[in-house]
Amino acid sequence: MKIAIIEDELLAVNYLKNLLDTQSIVPVTETVVLRSKKQAIEFFKQDSADLIFMDIHLGDGMSLEIFEHVELFTPVIFITAFDEYAMKVFRHFTIDYLLKPFEEEDLYKALRKFISIRNNFDPEPVLKSISSLRQADEEIMKRFMVREGNKLKSIDEQNTAYFFASGKYLFLTTKDHQTYIYDDTIKDIIQKLNPEIFFKINRKFIINKNAVSEIIKHSSQKVELRLSPEPEVNAEVFISKTQIAECLNWLNS
Known about the structure:
Blueprint: E1 2-6, H1 10-22, E2 30-34, H2 37-46, E3 51-54, E4 57-58, E5 61-62, E6 76-80, H3 86-89, E7 94-99, H4 104-120, H5 123-137, E8 143-148, E9 151-156, E10 160-166, E11 169-174, E12 179-182, H6 186-189, E13 198-200, E14 205-208, E15 212-219, E16 222-227, E17 237-238, H7 244-252
Parallel strand pairs: 1-2, 1-3, 3-6, 6-7
Antiparallel strand pairs: 4-5, 8-9, 10-11, 10-14, 11-12, 13-14, 15-16, 16-17
């Protein structure tokens, strides 16, 4: 069985390869290591694998973007340090979602699940479901309807600076400093937004990349963002500690 590992951290690659070499659940005849999104896209344009292990955040972008460039129906076991994308990955042929650091038994359970699905299920309905989800994924929200007095107003994603939650309400702030109540929750709206443009930096804020005017690193565990326009509430906006590395990479991509 041919295995592809899409991972940019060498220690993580070696750890996974060692586990795969010592297990007997899946017979591995070849292992291909792809260290970047670019390498993965070029590989899958010409080749294939029986099972993919995929880290979500790579040095040159999000691995989920690979699916935008090549048609992949290969089963995937996602391995990541973040749980933010758990819902998004099941738009693909996902076997499991392992959070780093994972143990041997976590991997073995995922492999046994893969073998069980491979041996006992007809893949056709799964592939049809994936196609349907991908089509829905293409319908990412690009405009947001808000109320202005007794009128309705449509705001596009480029003019949306950020969403922020306060009390029971979710608010949308535009780049020209207009704030409106938006009828949704921060938990649900993040699933409908373009991940290249928007990022949920903490429990209260989803920001547009272009709304960040300044990044202030107080320490490795305390990073503040200055937004434009400045929020009327919660003047100090900090990235959640668990999101710092991913958010900074997102801002830099």
